[in-house]
């Protein structure tokens, strides 16, 4: 069963188009992760936060990615990384036009 994962962390570097330019290869690599379905990249310059909302095919694949990604972010110098995996209520999500 598909799951949603939310990740965020303090970020004070680049935003918008500059972030897109610098993170393009990382974005392409995420497409190759086991069980990956999609990702919304999130950023709030006002709150100095960045992250994403992901969909994976299973909790196991999401948790494996979260572990690897948290380590990678730490190696990039980020701290206070938060990540949570959630099951999806598909019936209610379909009513609310979720992008399955």
From TrEMBL:
Organism ancestry: Bacteria, Pseudomonadati, Bacteroidota, Flavobacteriia, Flavobacteriales
Protein name (Swiss-Prot/TrEMBL): Monooxygenase
Keywords: Monooxygenase, Oxidoreductase
Organism, as annotated: Gelidibacter maritimus
Signal peptide as annotated in the record: none
Molecular function terms from GO: monooxygenase activity
Family matches, as InterPro entries: Dimeric_a/b-barrel (IPR011008), YdhR (IPR014910)
PANTHER family the UniProt entry points to: MONOOXYGENASE YDHR-RELATED, PTHR39169
């Amino acid at each position: 069963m598909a799951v949603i994962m939310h990740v965020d962390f303090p970020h004070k570097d680049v935003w918008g188009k500059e972030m897109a330019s610098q993170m393009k290869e990382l974005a392409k690599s995420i497409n190759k992760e086991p069980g990956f379905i999609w990702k919304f990249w999130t950023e709030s310059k006002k709150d100095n936060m960045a992250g994403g909302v992901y969909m994976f095919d299973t909790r196991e694949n999401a948790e494996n990615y979260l572990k690897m990604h948290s380590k990678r972010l730490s190696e990039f110098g980020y701290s206070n990384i938060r990540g949570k995996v959630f099951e999806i209520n598909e019936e209610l999500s379909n009513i609310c036009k979720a992008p399955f």
